[in-house]
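Q: what does this look like with manganese (II) ion bound?
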Amino acid sequence: MRPMTRREALQASGVLALAGLAGCSGTESAAATSDAETAAGGSARGSAGSSAEGLPTPFVVPQSTIPVLGRDEVFPVRRIYCIGRNYAAHAIEMGSDPTREPPFFFQKPTDAIQLAWPGEVLDHSYPPLTRNYHYEVELVVALRGGGRDISPDEALDRVYGYAVGLDMTRRDLQLASRAEEKPWEIGKSFDNSAVLGPLHHVADVGHFHAGRIRLSVNGEVKQEADLEQMIWNVAEQISQLSQGSELRPGDIIYSGTPENVGPVVVGDLMEGHIDGLTDIAVRVV
Ligand code: MN
């Protein structure tokens, strides 16, 4: 599908007032988010200076949101889950056995979201501490419903929409943590590590059981696979996650990356594609 420009996307979704929002990771976020909540008819939770108990708060913590193409609303983010090693060939390249491993999940902080507008190139800063910074292109699933012990048959009813995402990874730190049997946190959960495009509502695009997923760097294809190669499909991911934690509206899931992850350096242009969703373009700066 032809990428929408930022203007087209905003006009389509009726959120022109939210031009500075983009995942609320900047200093302008507090004001933008207040506007966003007003524009979206949002509630008081977390907004300008008062708590659910009616007490003042000393500062405002912005609510992370994701724009939705063609809808007069934005999607508020509660939690960001990511599944590990969900394509067999990627599991093998990471040194594990894809045939025996149950799915496992980790989280990124909600404010790690950085939005890549269709038709624009996002500037994405090379993060500190790493010397081996990797892309992982992934299908992102956004939930409008939740629950515990959700069966795979009922899981897709909880889906709000989908986006193209990059689970950016400080691979050297992830692997060092793994070798020392420490948490992956420092390799996976850092500022701006959850790059994604705007959401497409499920009513507009349906569900994604198959379709090409691809990542190019400087015009050269690096990762390419089909969504049907996922070891655990979207319904199974939701079902499995809901056994360990209650899922709630606002949760999103990065559904795993295919093989051939690799490094980027300053100046590289990453382009992410999934059939049926708008592409994203991200420049490392
Ligand atoms: Mn990943």
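The helical segments are 6-13, 29-39, 88-93, 152-155, 171-179, 185-188, 202-205, 234-244. The chain is about 20% helix and 30% strand.
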